Amino acid sequence: AFQDLVYGWNRHEVANVEGDPVILKSDGFPTYHLACVVDDHHMGISHVLRGSEWLVSTSKHLLLYQALGWQPPRFAHLPLLLNRDGSKLSKRQGDIFLEHFAAADFLPDALLDIIT
C-alpha cells in the first residue's frame, strides 16, 4: 500500500494480479518500470507527478525500489488532460505549446486553473 498525494491510499497486489513482473525484455533492454525507477533514483527525484493511468503501476515501482534498497520518491497521479474527442492529450499532437495558448489570449492563471 502507498499514499498517493492526489488519490490517497492505494494498493495493487502485483503478485496476485500480474505474477512475477517482467523488468527486462527478451532483448535485454529494461522495461519502462525498471528504467524509470533507476533513472529517477540516479537523478535524485523526490516527487513523481504523472498521469492517473500509471497509478496501478506504482506498487510495482515501489517493489523495485525496495528490492534495490533505495528510498522511493513521493507519488502524485494527476487526472488526464483530454482532447476534444476524449483521447489522451499528447505532446506529439495538436497545438499544445504555451506559445499557442498565449497567442490565443489565454491568461496564464486560467491555464494553471485548468491543469490543476
From TrEMBL:
<dbReference type="Pfam" id="PF00749">
    <property type="entry name" value="tRNA-synt_1c"/>
</dbReference>
<protein>
    <submittedName>
        <fullName>Glutamyl-tRNA synthetase 2, mitochondrial</fullName>
    </submittedName>
</protein>
<keyword id="KW-0030">Aminoacyl-tRNA synthetase</keyword>
<dbReference type="GO" id="GO:0004818">
    <property type="term" value="F:glutamate-tRNA ligase activity"/>
</dbReference>
<keyword id="KW-0648">Protein biosynthesis</keyword>
<dbReference type="InterPro" id="IPR020058">
    <property type="entry name" value="Glu/Gln-tRNA-synth_Ib_cat-dom"/>
</dbReference>
<dbReference type="GO" id="GO:0006424">
    <property type="term" value="P:glutamyl-tRNA aminoacylation"/>
</dbReference>
<dbReference type="InterPro" id="IPR014729">
    <property type="entry name" value="Rossmann-like_a/b/a_fold"/>
</dbReference>
<comment type="similarity">
    <text>Belongs to the class-I aminoacyl-tRNA synthetase family.</text>
</comment>
<keyword id="KW-0067">ATP-binding</keyword>
<keyword id="KW-0547">Nucleotide-binding</keyword>
<keyword id="KW-0436">Ligase</keyword>
<dbReference type="GO" id="GO:0005739">
    <property type="term" value="C:mitochondrion"/>
</dbReference>
<dbReference type="InterPro" id="IPR049940">
    <property type="entry name" value="GluQ/Sye"/>
</dbReference>
<feature type="domain" description="Glutamyl/glutaminyl-tRNA synthetase class Ib catalytic">
    <location>
        <begin position="2"/>
        <end position="115"/>
    </location>
</feature>
<dbReference type="GO" id="GO:0005524">
    <property type="term" value="F:ATP binding"/>
</dbReference>
